[in-house]
Please model this.
Amino acid sequence: MKLHAVAAGVLMLAGTALTRTPDHQTITLDAYSGDSSVSGHARLLVTRDHGAFHLRGEVTSDHGCVLLKAVQMHLGLYFGSDMVTRVCGDDHHITVDSHTHHSDVVLTADVGPGYDSRIVALTGTGG
Model:
């Protein structure tokens, strides 16, 4: 019996050692205006690619226009943004396949400042 317990323990350790961190990052963002005239969301899969980040997924506008931006964070503010895509209309979807050297992403309801999703740091891994 002890031999079976030891063998089972070794197999469990071997299985744990083979577990690895996913090689991608999954991001979900939601943005909406205070008056509900604009709302949308993004689902992204992020990987590292030749010193940059590869963004793939979909951005959806439920109402109005939303913008997916790649940004640089500094002291809690973002600057140096590149627009990845802009989606407008009721229930419109755009496929994203883009590269960026920026460090973060944000989805913005396109009605003025103050209607951003949470800002997410890009890692390219699930760890």
Q: What stands out?
A: Residues 22-121 form a domain with the Immunoglobulin-like fold (CATH 2.60.40). Confidence is low (pLDDT under 50) at residues 6-17. Residues 18 and 41 are 35 Å apart (CA to CA).
